Amino acid sequence: MNPNTDYYCLRTFDSYFAQDISLPVGTSISFRQTADGKLITEINGKQIGAVHSKELCKAFFDMYIGDGPVSMQAKEEIARNVGGIMRRC
Predict the structure, then answer these.
(1) d(Cα 18, Cα 13) in Å, to the nearest integer?
(2) 87 CB neighbour count, 10 Å cutoff
(3) pLDDT tens-digit profile of 36-80?
(4) How does residue 86 score in pLDDT terms, banded at 50, 70 and 90?
(5) Where does the record place the Chalcone isomerase domain (predicted)?
(6) Are 65 and 78 in contact (CB under 8 A)?
(7) Model confidence at 88: pLDDT above 70
(8) How many CA atoms lie within 13 A of 73 on its CB side?
(9) What DSSP string describes 29-55?
(10) Backbone angles phi, psi at 47, to 5 degrees
């Protein structure tokens, strides 16, 4: 554990999903990081929250696209989606 962990930031991020939010099949949940280190959460294109923590951004995205991802299938899908975006640019 990092002794400098920002627990307020973690609680804030967690609170976005503690609400009674309906997530029917096909719901789009998006996470993005801004250049200044905000982790923005959107559901079906509507922003539900943002926390400012470069450390949380790094940990969150490393979980999916870093070494040893929680799901190799998710990492591969993200790579395909990013590749498609890059080809359209």
Answers:
(1) 9
(2) 7
(3) 999 999 999 999 999 999 888 888 888 878 888 788 888 788 777
(4) very low
(5) 8-79
(6) yes
(7) no
(8) 0
(9) EEEEE-TTSEEEEEETTEEEEEEE-HH
(10) -70, 125
Model pLDDT, residue 89: 40
Q: Do the beta carbons of residue 42 and residue 48 sit within 8 Å? A: yes
Q: Which helix (H) or strand (E) holds 10?
A: helix 7-18
Q: Where are the domains of the chain?
A: 7-88
Q: ∠ CA 28-55-50 to the nearest 5 degrees? A: 40
Helices 54-65 and 72-88 pack at an angle, to 10 degrees, of 100
Tokens of 71: 């799901």
β pairing state of 38-43 and 46-52: antiparallel
Compute the distance between CA of residue 87 and CA of residue 28 in angstroms, rounded to an integer. 22
DSSP state of 15: H
